[in-house]
Amino acid sequence: MGALSGLTFADFETPGLLVGALFVGIIIGMAVEQLLTATMWRGVASTKIIVKLGRLTG
Questions:
Q1: pLDDT surpasses 60 at 1
Q2: How far is CA 56 from CA 39, 40, 47, 50, in A?
Q3: Beta-carbon contacts of residue 8 (< 8 Å; ≥ 6 apart)
Q4: What gap in Å lies between CA 52 and CA 49, rounded to an integer?
Q5: Would 49 be classed as within a structural domain?
Q6: Which one of 26, 28, 50, 58 is at 20 to 30 Å from 34 when CA atoms are compared?
Q7: Cβ atoms < 10 Å from Cβ of 12
Q8: In a domain, 36, yes or no
């Protein structure tokens, strides 16, 4: 499948392309981590608000 796009495994033996691919992977990983952390904090904050409202009305 890689050969169809013109990019093969042998192309990654060149240091520049390997470093570039690793760098892109790191950037994507950091972006996903930030997105998941933000989503988690939004969930925690909304849960705390719901609990506080429940205490006030209950």
A1: no
A2: 26, 25, 14, 10
A3: 2
A4: 5
A5: yes
A6: 50
A7: 14
A8: yes
Residues 6+ apart with CB under 8 A from 9: 2
Q: Are 10 and 4 in contact (CB under 8 A)?
A: no
18 located within any domain = no
pLDDT digits over 18-55, tens only?
A: 888 889 999 999 999 988 888 777 776 677 766 666 77
Q: Is residue 26 part of a domain?
A: no
What pTM does this model have?
0.52
Residue 35: its pLDDT value, please? Answer: 85
44 lies in which domain range?
Answer: 32-58
Angstrom distance (rounded) from CA 49 to CA 19: 45
Q: Residue 50 corresponds to which amino acid?
A: I
Q: How many domains does the chain have?
A: 1
